[in-house]
Amino acid sequence: MSERMYKATLSQSQGREGWSVIFRHPVVHDRATGKPGRRVRRGLGTKDETAAAKLVAELNQLLADRIFWEASSRAAASSRFTPIVVDIFYHDMVPESFDSFGIRESVIPLPRSSNSPFRRVLFLGTTGGGKTTLVRQLIGTDPRTERFPSTSTAKTTVADMEIVLSPGPFRSVVTFLPRDQVRDYVEECMSAAVLAAYHGESDAEIQRRLLSHVNQRFRLSYILGSGDPAVDEDDSAGEEPSETSDEIADFDLTRSHTLLRSAAQRLRSIAGQYAASLREELRGTQTDERVLEELFEESLDNWLRDDERFQTLADEFMDEIERRFELLTAGAIEKTKQGWPRSWSYESADRKMFLKVVSRLSSNYAPHFGTLLTPLVNGIRVAGPFAPIWLDRQPALVLFDVEGLGHTPDSAASLPTALTRRLEDVDAVLLVDNATQPMQAAPVAAMRNLASGGQTSKLIVCFTHFDGVGGDNLPSFKSKEQHVLASAENALTAIGEQLGSFAERALRQRLKSACFFLGGLHEALTPNTKIGKRTIEQLKELLPAIDRTAVKPEPVRSRPVYDRLNLALSVKQAAEEFHAAWDARLGILVKYGVSKEHWTRIKALTRRLAEGWDDEYLNLKPLADLHKELRESIYRFIQNPVSWSDAVPSDDEKQQVFDGFAETISLRLLVIVAARLRDEAVRDWQRAYGLAGKGSSFGRANIIANDIYDKAVPVPDVAPTPDRNKFLHEVIDVVRASAQDHDITLQ
After folding, report:
1. Which DSSP symbol is given to 746?
2. Percent of residues, the chain, with pLDDT higher than 90
3. Which pLDDT score is estimated for 237?
4. pLDDT by residue (tens digit) across 502-520?
5. In terms of C-beta density within 10 A (0-12 exposed, 13-18 middle, 19 or more buried), how is residue 554 classed?
6. What is the distance between the alpha carbons of residues 128 and 407, in angstroms, rounded to a whole number?
């Protein structure tokens, strides 16, 4: 069999002056097949066809000579070829490091409570619960004329928002998703649209699938519009327009509209070519219609990723997306070596101008659809003289507004690992919950996670929409407060049964001492109304409550003593719970309350872990799940020492010791979990993602269960093995090191 030849070709998209190159990389694995030959398309940085052709000729020399196909050969290639050619060839072999938080920190450092009066506050809450609306009240932005940060009943906050209330000019720094991650989102949207075309859906439904990713984090409609100017103007997905709203930027959307209008037919044509023959081919090997449908969908997805028409359309979408960065005429853009924007920074003393410019990267305002960069942002940090309009001073606050918790039906759901890491660096956690439907599963899950991680002392609960609480049996504010708090009773009792009495006790104390009831937040607050006056009073009490979270109590003299054997049993229980839940999700075994996940979700998870740009997909969070199981099992262990080094302390003192110990353990456990399930398993995640064809869904599930989870999380047993011993000892070492930090004895 002859060896595959790799050749680069010159490319120029319609309407663009710059030239690009397209080639299959001989070393980098294709995301769809898991084999060498990833399709690469990169700009050449020139509008001159002759110069572009010379660069392509150089690249073809690299592709023809295997001596350059090792990352270590980059230096030799640099001595012979033009820098941009070398960058294009070696970029995906040795990807650039990308620390979004570090980039933002280098431009606007965040103050800490340890050496300043500032308090860091993390906002948690369900989607549409009002946490971003509360942020607006604390920074004093007008809900109609400024609309910053953006709010909506749908999922709005999809990128980390960090706001520093500080003197001086208004400053901002924004970091963007890497190009490959954006491309992955685009291709996933296109694949969903092709499947809709195969099922005979209308052009409108095909376009809907195309314009909004299933996880709602990535919405092409924000960037490119809907393809119909009239629809863009009437779209109500964002906030209501106001009389003083800014004019839409003078940006030509003709090319975007043309592309979107043609996309449905082009995708329908691609679906038509493959669908009939593929289904006929598979029908001969499978009679079960459910299995056949799964095989068909996955095989179609794999074929699409290797189809040049599909890839060309993705190229055109990427060109249009990249064109939106031309809107950033103010400020400074920092780009990668490949020319993709990495970050953007901007400063202004003019508040109105600053918010107008920044809104292009954070807004969901429907009349601006087609010109927004919001879905491309993975983090935005702003600093400036923001202050509440109901306060005569500027509070020293750093606010973190993160993605909503969603509407999980499971009160035992895991918090994302990125959120768990963020908990270490904040002083207070504001759990924002809707008073009209209080204490549903998501906020209860958040409280449960905080308790088992020893973070309960940071918890502050804010019930929003309090003006919507009513009834003939609730005549006063006090009766309404008691009505809302009563909804927490069953939840707290359940947490106590699951995690132990000290978890329940700590949460009850926080609900009693750090709980606030807020109404009318969607409007500018005024003391002239009953609810306005009441909410202002509550907000003024909230600020010192935030301040108090940074005050640490005096250390407890008496220290607990633990039996290591009990710890081993806790690790065993955590490992068993993790495997039982994931075996059910993978369809290997059955577990009550856990459903088998669709193959597309499992494959999307493997893709993210294989590519290294996330460790979760929707509700699939293997790292967070293992961390939660270990953390909760060990928290139960912590509450049951065999003795104390001195006189038995009071319950308050015990709580302080237990929580401090649990917090240190939790942070260290996350390191082990990430190493075992992500870092050490990258090749297996890549192998699982690369499976294609008949039986690939079953094979992928087995790789995850047997080659990844069983190796990373072996269940300790009476018959020890090196792998089981290593996992158990790593967890015990974490607890032992944490115990030493707290002068605690582990026998």
Report:
1. E
2. 48
3. 46
4. 999 999 999 999 999 999 9
5. exposed
6. 10
Which residue's entry shows tokens 């056949």? 292
Residue 316 · residue 308 · CB < 8 Å: no
Ordered strands of the 560-562 beta sheet: 643-644, 560-562, 745-746
pTM: 0.87
Question: Mind listing the pLDDT tens digit for each residue in 238-259?
Answer: 444 443 334 455 778 888 888 9
Cis previous bond, 149, omega within 30:
yes
pLDDT for 235: 47
What was the pLDDT predicted at 653?
94
DSSP code at position 249: P
pLDDT at residue 302 is higher than 50: yes
Give the tens place of pLDDT for each residue, 633-681: 999 999 999 999 999 999 999 999 999 999 999 999 999 999 999 999 9
Joined together, the tokens standing for residue 703 give: 């790789």
Q: Which two tokens stand for residue 523?
A: 């409007």
Q: Give the C-alpha separation, 739 to 642, whole Å.
A: 14
When computed from its CA atoms, the radius of gyration of the chain, rounded to whole angstroms, is 27
Q: Kindly compute the dihedral angle of the four CA atoms of residues 25, 30, 31, 34, in this order, to the nearest 10 degrees.
A: -140
Work out the end-to-end distance of the chain between its first and last CA atoms, rounded to an integer number of angstroms: 64
The overall average pLDDT reported for the chain is: 86
Dihedral pair phi/psi, residue 235, rounded to 5°: -60, 135
Tokens 């984090």 appear where?
Answer: 217
Burial (Cβ within 10 Å: 0-12, 13-18, ≥19) of residue 393: exposed
Report helix angle 179-198 to 289-305, nearest 10.
130
Q: What angle do CA 741, 655, 550 make, to 5 degrees?
A: 75
What is the rounded distance in angstroms from the CA atom of residue 692 to the CA atom of residue 674? Answer: 27
Q: Is 109 helix (H, G, I), strand (E, B) or coil?
A: coil
